[in-house]
Amino acid sequence: MNKKVKNGSDQEAVKKKSPKKKSVTKKDLEILVNELKEKELRLRAEFDNFRKRKESEIAGILKYEGKSFVLDFLSILDTINRGIESYKEDNIKDALKLIQKDFLKKMEEKEITQFGEKGEIFDPELHEALTTTNDSKKKDNEIVEVYEAGFQYKDLIIKHAKVVVNKK
User: Fold this and answer.
1) Domain 67-166, CATH 3.30.110.10 — does that match?
2) C-alpha separations of 144 from 15, 32, 37, 114, 127 in Å
3) What is the pLDDT of residues 89-117, one digit of tens each?
4) Pick from 13, 9, 11: which is nearest to 1 by CA?
5) Which of 52, 62, 109, 111 lies in the 20 to 30 Å Cα band around 34?
6) What does the alpha-carbon distance between residue 77 and residue 116 come to, in Å, rounded to a whole number?
């Protein structure tokens, strides 16, 4: 029977309970250094990927920053176009055409281009077919009438052209 002394002076019991310390070798340290180098390399790669992803997202946001602004103003242009078509007085039509021309010029300066003309071939990426017609004098898939022009901002389609398409 091994009795323990209350003040902890039994050294034999302490020796049995405490594990023996292994001495650290040069090889152990080299392994540890290599593991840390690998962790550092992985962290650098993760950070680099994160940085590239964020740069790409920010570039996308900046590239199309004006999209919502442009969409708001396209409704004004649609109203001007309807006014040109509906007014019978030439002086009012001429005034609206001047406003329309200036509006389109300003938009082109900001890399906003208009598309969707009569005679173009229908492209579902650019045009929205509201209805079809059957005219033997026109080509198949030719745009016969344009209700609203489409607009492109840089390489992004902002608004599809609303058109009538010929189907044979």
Assistant:
1) no
2) 99, 75, 68, 17, 12
3) 889 889 999 999 999 898 888 888 899 99
4) 13
5) 52
6) 15
**Beta strands, E only, 23-126:** 112-115
Q: 12 vs 103, which has greater pLDDT? A: 103
Contact 160, 136 (CB under 8 A): no
In contact, 112 and 138? CB cutoff 8 Å? no
Beta-sheet strand order (sheet of 112-115): 112-115, 150-153, 156-159
Provide the sign of the torsion angle of the four alpha carbons 53, 56, 61, 62, taken in this order. positive
- Token pair 């023996």 is found at 20
> Letter for the amino acid at 163?
V
